[in-house]
Amino acid sequence: MKTLWNWLDSRTGLGDWCGWLADTPTPGGPGWSKVWPCAITFSFCIEAITGFFLWVYYSPSTQTAWESVYYLQHQVAGGWLLRAIHHYTAHVLLAMLILFVVQTILTGACRAPRELVFWATIGLALFALAAVLTGDLLSWDQNGYSATKTRTGFLTLLPWIGDSLLSLANGGPGSTLGNLTLTRFFALHVGLFSGGFLLLLIIRGALARRVNDAIAATGGATPYWPRQAWRAGFAYLAVLAVVLLLSCQHGVKPPHAGVPTLSPADPANCYSAARPEWFLTGVFQFSQLFPSVWEVVPIFVVTGLLFCIVMVMPFLARTPLGHAFNIVFTLTILAALVGMTYASYAKDRKDAVHQKAIALEQWQADRVLALAEHQGIPPTGALTLLRNDPKTQGPRLFAQQCAGCHSHASNAYEMPEIKTETPTAPNLTDYASRQWLAGLLDPKQVNSAKYFGSTKFRGGKMAGFVKENLSELDAGEKKNLQKAIAALSAEARLPAQQELDARDAKLIEEGRKLLSSDFGCTDCHRFHGKGTLGIAPLLTGYGSPEWLAGIINNSADKQFYSKLNDRMPAYAPNADPTQNTLSLRQVQMLTDWLRGDWYEKKTTIGK
Fold this sequence. Notes:
By secondary structure, the chain is mainly alpha-helical. The protein has 24 helices and two strands. Helix 6 (115-138) packs across helix 7 (142-153).
């Protein structure tokens, strides 16, 4: 080993370099308050190493960014930990820089001859901040997309140059983020801000060494090794411990280990619960105190003024009064930011709408992970999985197109019922199930708001038939009615009733005969070749995918309500240019959702 060291030292001068580092002067002697530069440098090294390996897996486009993060997070062994270490180290690095700047101001270490060192430290903090903000978008999930869109939108508040800056940031005109935005943010994150941080770190180190050498010449410093070196080593371990604790706070097993992954960014659906990172939360809350037309004041004017004051602090610190001003000013701003940050978090915790949006997004994130695991990610990207998922899109389509008349207890994300203020059509929860049909054929419920109570059929033949013929049934007739209900519900082929229908096959067959004869249903309805069309809806295939698609496309068709149709529009493509229409795929997703027909990771399907 000695021979190897001598050979290496003779060729590289490594021994002299190590000696130079060991002799680095520490003004005022060793101390814990002086570990910040070493801890910051150590954190940046972690960022550089983990960032390189993340780069190996990352592909910056709207169809591959989230997908590459998904692959790293869920398919690569230890990938979740690699990503978490990079993510949380960046935040720890920024936090340390903020604390370092504050300490420098409070102790007066920013005064001459350290003005340039102080300004370089502020520059490091700004580069770290920019790197975190640009990296926020790179995961291309709903939170990163929505938060970045809000932040870049603030540029339009600047007169004359705002639109040009927005176009420069987004990679094109308008506020929509896309492929060019991702490419631009990735280049800024890896090239400009990370590279700039490294360059400025070297410059700051050189400036600090020059100042320390000057102090050492007067005899006011001690060598770095060993007393300050072991303190720095302890700081390295502390940084690692904090980063690992943060990385494992959600457990060590996917899918929630490391950094939580939300669903892919969808420009068509705004994520209202998106919030800035912790270091900007106070500024966000402060901006809420101003009307929207005055947002430029808290976002740019106030922050710009505060920045200018911080930059002149080295000159103010030359006098005791100026140093006192720096301390009071810094502590006041910190207290205000901490208070604003706490107020923002407290407000969100109490906001039911905000919490619901978070819960919905978390459900959607879990949903896309389940779909990706089951189906794989298509070439068009993971967002396609959600856009073609009945469980995800069904409630949205229903809320947009159907909730004006119908209500539904959404069984998609365990959320409250989708309600209309004044329902004018039946509630479609569990539509065509045995429970739903039993209520329809109950004389006490048929004219309730859940069924015909708010429709023109309230006084029609169906309501009259139920009240007159099904009010007083003996035990045998009630049993036959249950058979008929089971038979009619079996026509829907509901996934939730597959096992029950198979078990009751004989009972269902008996019920079909009753529907065709004893109950007189075919006097108005057509059922398996008996009865006529045009008077009441077809009962053959009632509630099945084909039947539901047909009534959604055109409820006025002779197979359904014909001329008796009660305000329900035709949603078939190009059916009526004056009405909202749905694509064939949208009709299918709405149909599947109403029937509870979607993929589930477990064996239980539907509700």
